[in-house]
From TrEMBL:
Biological process annotations from GO: DNA replication
Protein name: DNA primase
GO molecular function: DNA binding; zinc ion binding
Amino acid sequence: MSAQPIQEILSQLQRVKKIAPDKWTALCPAHDDRRPSLSIREADDGKILLHCWAGCGAADIVNALGLTLADLFPRTNRYNVGEARSVHRVWAHREALQGIAHEAIIVRLFIARLVGCAPLDHDDLVRLALADERIGEALRVAEEGR
Ligand SMILES: [Zn+2]
């Protein structure tokens, strides 16, 4: 593959049409496409962004072309594939922690009310149950990202 993956990708697609300097449409190779539903965009760093309006995943699309997701990155930036994944993981962790921190504030507010002998009403209990649910969800996200 050349240093510019966009040329390689476009040469393998059918009914390619340029709609902007860095944007094309083509028939999606991953499903039985009759009107071009694949959008192709070349990012500033040479990375190729694929989007099928019928819902095919980028991995399905490159597989149908006999390529891999790594082929969507310029050869000089191949390490970015792994890098992008680890950055995503760090963010998922951070968001999970922020979510827990936020829910902890809610719980603390309710506890302060109870300590001040102000009873919780039905809405409060619903909100507490939601806090419990969100903390559990955040923990699952953090667990998966490990
Ligand atoms: Zn498709």
